[in-house]
Design a protein that fits this description.
Blueprint (H helix, E strand, L loop, with lengths): L4 E14 L5 E16 L4 E5 L6 H8 L7 E6 L2 E2 L5 H10 E4 L3 H4 L6 H11 L5 H14 L16 H13 L5 E5 L7 H18 L2 E6 L2 H7 L2 E6 L2 E7 H6 L4 H8 L40 H5 L5 E2 L5 E2 L20
Parallel strand pairs: 3-8, 3-9, 6-7, 7-8
Antiparallel strand pairs: 1-2, 1-4, 4-5, 9-10, 10-12, 11-12
GO molecular function: ATP binding
Pfam families: ABC_tran, oligo_HPY
Main location: membrane
Length: 336
């Protein structure tokens, strides 16, 4: 089956310039540095990694909100890397984004009804009356009463604003929604409500999500598959079950080990990852994780490991994936 979204060898490099009179390039930030993944219809692929690893840039590249330096983007089997005009507008209807901070993405001077109706108006969908009716329907879908349409963004809580952002994305009846850390700014109790809403909407409308997160605990609740990103590259992809039960990449293992164990008796056994994340202006040669990897060997400093398939759709970018001891995931959190 053709994936809904597929990106191949996607890169975003920014020149870094210095100099007041004559600017000269002093380096390159490799924010996204050769990323490939696919999102199938109706599934949630979580893209997880520490802040600054290139997750949000990848999300924006995938939707053509920014232009890639290299690589290609395919939507529903079609190469959309360089489309423009009407074709790009059509893509915008089918693939929407929900941002981390809905307050920043909502115009404070538009009431919520107008904010939700705006994409429909831009795309020439319906008339003012039909859009008003649709706004009420959309508010209902995200659990907000119709009278909220007349209120302004500042009158809502963070969780409610995120519901409004989701309603706005749904207004286009998209097939894919990129969720860029949609619950990271919310209290834990509210996070669960928004995650449950997203899952409910996915079931109802067959939505696919590319779900960006830095929090593996959230990923555990939403993802079908997980891609782990580090310094602009994906290091491991697996089903959620395989990733949490039998992670292969040393970085994934370190991330999982850093999740606090629910049983306090079993906490504190974890060796935290040493060192800092290198700058995306100075990505280490060979395996980009070698400066922090407890298992690194000579080959790791020389050869850049490609993302390669193991069994059952599990992919890993590590020279030594087969020879590392079996991972014992000890995060303690079970699967529902
Ligand atoms: Fe560690 Fe080497 Fe694997 Fe990189 S390739 S993750 S440095 S063992
Ligand atoms: Mg981000």
């Amino acid at each position: 089956m053709t994936p809904l979204l597929e990106v191949r060898d996607l890169a975003k490099h920014y020149p870094v310039k210095s100099g007041i009179v004559v600017a000269r390039q002093v380096g390159t930030v490799r924010a996204v540095d050769g990323v490939s993944f696919a999102v199938n219809r109706g599934e949630t692929l979580a893209l997880v990694g520490e802040s600054g690893c290139g997750k949000s840039t990848t999300a924006r590249l995938a939707l053509r909100l920014i232009e890639p330096s290299a690589g290609s983007i395919h939507f529903d089997g079609r190469d959309v890397t360089r489309i423009g005009g009407a074709a790009l507008r059509a893509l915008r209807r089918r693939a929407q984004i929900v941002f981390q901070d809905p307050y920043a993405s909502l115009n404070p001077r538009l009431n919520v009804g107008d904010a939700i109706a705006e994409p429909m108006a831009v795309h020439g969908i319906g008339n003012a009356a039909s859009r008003r009716a649709r706004v009420e329907e959309l508010l209902g879908l995200v659990g907000l009463a119709p009278f909220h349409a007349a209120r302004f963004p500042h009158e809502f809580s963070g969780g409610q604003r995120q519901r409004i952002g989701i309603a706005r994305a749904l207004s286009m009846q998209p097939e894919l929604i990129v969720c860029d850390e949609p619950v990271s700014a919310l209290d834990v109790s509210i996070q669960a409500q928004v995650v449950n809403l997203l899952k409910d909407l996915q079931r109802r409308f067959g939505l696919a999500y590319l779900f960006i997160a830095h929090d593996l605990a959230v990923v555990k609740h939403v993802a079908d598959r997980v891609a782990v990103m580090y310094l602009g590259r994906i290091l491991e992809v697996a089903s959620k079950r395989a990733l949490f039960a039998a992670p292969r990449h040393p970085y994934t293992r370190a991330l999982l080990a850093a999740i606090p164990h629910p049983d306090p008796q079993r906490r504190g056994r974890v060796t935290p990852l040493g060192g800092d994340v290198p700058s995306p202006m100075a990505i280490p040669p060979g395996c980009r994780f070698h400066t922090r990897c407890p298992a690194a060997q000579a080959i790791c400093r020389e050869q850049d490991p490609a993302l390669r398939p193991l069994a059952d759709g599990h992919q890993v970018a590590c020279h030594l994936a087969e020879t590392l001891p079996e991972a014992i995931s000890d995060t303690g959190a079970g699967f529902a």
